[in-house]
Design goal:
Elements lengths: L7 H14 L12 H8 L5 H10 L1 E3 L14 H8 L4 E7 L12 E7 L9 E5 L2 E4 L5 H17 L4 E6 L7 H13 L6 E6 H10 L6 E4 L1 H14 L9 E3 L4 E3 L18 H13 L3 H16 L13 H13 L1
Parallel strand pairs: 1-10, 3-8, 6-7, 6-8
Antiparallel strand pairs: 2-3, 2-9, 4-5, 9-10
The structure holds nicotinamide-adenine-dinucleotide.
Length: about 325
């Protein structure tokens, strides 16, 4: 368990309480990362943390702060690359009882997690001129496309939409698309379509119900995830998983939200549902379903935080979900 920075300890506290209430017996190995680790060990990504993930292979993680335009490189990106967590999976759906701008949203963002502009290759070539290198490989593109189609097939989803800007980035996004097309041919029962990213953003806020599984490179996936979160109630409700062949790190889509940290205002539902995804991954789908059911029940009863129209604090909302599971 990595509590994380900012609102991380608050939401992870609620998630671990709920997981225990669901009857999942976990002996947590608490590890510091980011600012907390820098203050304690002088290193934002300490060896103890890496050793723990290598040993336990599964982690529940709070968000970690990354300085804007300065400071150490993103620890989130470093963890995803170190453990080859190549697939970022983010289910986006309307929660029953929660009134939002759209109905019928039930889509899944599949974001490539290891390359693209997040490769961190940036340099100044002359004063006032910098380059950021966008790395796209056939290997990573095929692998994430296969993940999206396998997921669609397994979860009985009907369509994968590859989102790109290959009209402009003909080589990089062109390669990504070529790989997606090649993989799509092997899954004839799953419909395949392509959409340019700017149009996809407009379509998502006009008719989100037309989408099913979205397949995206790293940067578009990051941006479109937050856009999609806005369709179903905001960053407070969307869970996520970073998955590789050997390791898995579960974390909500949101960041450290410094504007509301420590005030009891933060919504723990995204972290709780990330915990449910982890519980399912650990082989307890019935307990994961129970957690999801308890979340839906508290939302219907308006026992939630202010961002969802309730009046509970973070810990009260976590307690309400946990109580449903114990009763
Ligand atoms: P953010 O997600 O932290 O916050 C965006 C907005 O959403 C804020 O107004 C915030 O108050 C609100 N919000 C976020 N989570 C919420 C929740 N659970 N309940 C209610 N409201 C919530 O994004 P940001 O402000 O762009 O980034 C802040 C920091 O977080 C940056 O350092 C960024 O690098 C980091 N970040 C980390 C991760 C991660 O660890 N995976 C992800 C995104 C951002």
């Amino acid at each position: 368990m990595i509590p994380g920075d900012g609102i991380g300890p608050e939401v992870i506290g609620a998630a671990t309480e709920v997981i225990a209430a669901a009857g999942v017996d976990i002996n947590w190995d608490r590890q510091l990362a980011g600012i907390a680790a820098l203050e304690t060990f002088g290193n934002p990504i300490p060896d103890e943390l890496l050793r723990s993930i290598r040993k336990n292979r599964v982690a529940l993680k709070g968000p970690l702060m990354t300085g804007v335009g300065r400071g150490f490189r993103s620890i989130n990106v470093a963890l995803r690359k170190t453990f080859d967590l190549y697939a970022n999976l983010r289910p986006i759906r309307n929660l029953p009882g929660l009134r939002t701008a759209f109905k019928g949203v039930d889509l899944v963002v599949v974001r490539e997690n290891t390359e693209d502009l997040y490769a961190g290759i940036e340099h100044q070539i002359a004063p006032g001129v910098v380059e950021s290198v966008k790395v796209i490989t056939a290997k990573a593109s095929r692998r994430i496309a296969r993940f999206a189609f396998e997921y669609a097939q397994r979860e009985k989803r009907h369509k994968v939409t590859a989102i790109h800007k290959a009209n402009i980035m003909k080589l990089s996004d062109g390669l990504f698309l070529a790989c997606a097309r090649e993989v799509a041919k092997k899954y004839p029962r799953v419909k395949y379509e392509e959409m340019i990213v700017d149009n996809a953003c407009m379509q998502l806020v006009l008719r989100p119900g037309q989408f099913d599984v979205l397949l995206l490179e790293n940067l578009y996936g990051d941006i479109v995830s937050d856009l999609c979160a806005g369709l179903v109630g905001g960053l407070g409700v969307v869970p996520g998983a970073n998955l590789g062949t050997r390791y898995a790190i579960f974390e909500a889509v949101h960041g450290t939200a410094p504007d509301i940290a420590g005030k009891g205002l933060v919504n723990p539902i995204g972290a709780i549902l990330s915990g449910a995804m982890m519980v399912k991954h650990l082989g307890h789908p019935e307990m994961a379903d129970a957690i999801e059911g308890a979340v839906e029940s508290v939302i219907r009863a308006r026992e939630c935080t202010r961002d969802l129209g309730g009046s509970l604090s973070t810990s009260e909302c976590g307690d309400a979900v946990a109580k449903r599971l114990r009763d």
